Amino acid sequence: MYGKVTSLEQAKAVEAMRMGNYVALPMEIDPEVTVAPPAMSGAIRLFTDFGSTVIKGRMRADPSRLSELTTGFISGFVSTGQSNVKGGLSYELDNVVMLFDTELDARTAANVFADEEFGADSENQPVELEKYPSARAQVNPGSPGMFQSWYAVGRFVIATYIYDNVMSALETADSAKLISRAETSIDKISDSLAEYAPLRLDELMDSEIDMDGVLGLVLPTVTDDGAQRGIPGVYNRHGGLHLSGSPAEDAVLFEETGVDRIAWQGNFVYRARDEEAAQRIAEEHGKVSKFLRRAESPQGLPNAQCTEYVGPAVHAIKYYCTVSFGRYAAEVAASQLTDVHQRISAQYAILAKSK
């Protein structure tokens, strides 16, 4: 069981989880962007310092300079997806939402980020967002299809990163289309954040880590398994879709099964409406598909559904198992069959003991 946060760093991460529940999903920004990002770019969703791969993977600016020139940064959350399962035919839409202690901190940070990134490459060219004249944005003729912008709204900075693989391959950039995508991102995310009341820095230490004890029900393997990257968290239905490998399909499934909590610590636990709904989630997430074939279930847990990944090997974990108990469904992953069997059995035991 988790209680209140015990450090400021932990408190900042919890606030990022709360923020994630309100940040617009990529498919809410653009209905074409329904595909989860590649494993490496989507692994880290929340962060508490500019040295995170969230920033280093999307900017060439020196993270230490960003930290030196800004104040009041609390934490950030990433909304990321792409428009096609085939990377070469897709465009990638990333929106990094950063929370600061004051509106002045946010406005200053947006300009610092823009200035530092602009200076990182002599070919960068500024562009204007007509709908948001205070936004800072840039393109680079040497990287057609790439677009970056920073916009402060309230205590937030919305950093938009777009990479259109088709434009890049054709070596022709459609600036109007890129700008439109950025403006729509700001539209949707600004609207979604209007419902969120963020805490101030001096209030963070009163935060509770868990939501309804669901995070405490997840088998924690993220610190033991190098294939699992990210910061543990618990979310509502909307926030949890940011972590989904199939967000469009799961949006429908979670609505129909009444999911209200989604927690991750290397493995997933979903709280559904009732026992029948939880069973359906386990069945749907345990289905075979083009790249997933049936694997044997562990001894003593025949109702667990296991699969083996047989598709392209890049960044993929090989084995998966799902199971349900009561109104909870669980999903675990591991690189070895024996490990995934041990994990799903241990996860089932945690759920069974919680009743």
Explain what you see.
- With 355 residues, the chain is an alpha+beta fold.
- The chain folds into two domains: 186 residues, Protein Transport Mog1p, Chain A, CATH 3.40.1000; 140 residues, no CATH class.
- Helices cover 33% and strands 23% of the residues.
- The strands form two sheets. It has a seven-stranded antiparallel sheet with strand order 1-2-3-7-6-5-4, with helices on both faces.
- α10 packs antiparallel against α11.
- The longest helix has 19 residues.
- The mean pLDDT is 95.
Can you count the helices? 12
Rg, Cα atoms, Å: 21 Å
Order of helices and strands: HHHEHHEEHEEEEHHEHHEEHEEEEH
Note poorly predicted spans. Answer: none
Largest sheet: 7 strands, antiparallel
Structural domain tally: 2
Q: Name the CATH class of the largest domain.
A: Alpha Beta
| Number of beta-strand segments | 14
The CATH topology of the largest domain: Protein Transport Mog1p, Chain A
State the CATH architecture of the largest domain: 3-Layer(aba) Sandwich
Measure the end-to-end span.
14 Å
- Strands of the widest sheet, in order across it, are 1-2-3-7-6-5-4
Helix content: 25-40%
Mean pLDDT: 95
What portion of the residues fall into strands of 2 or more residues?
Answer: 15-25%
Shape: globular
Domain DUF7373: 3-207, 224-354
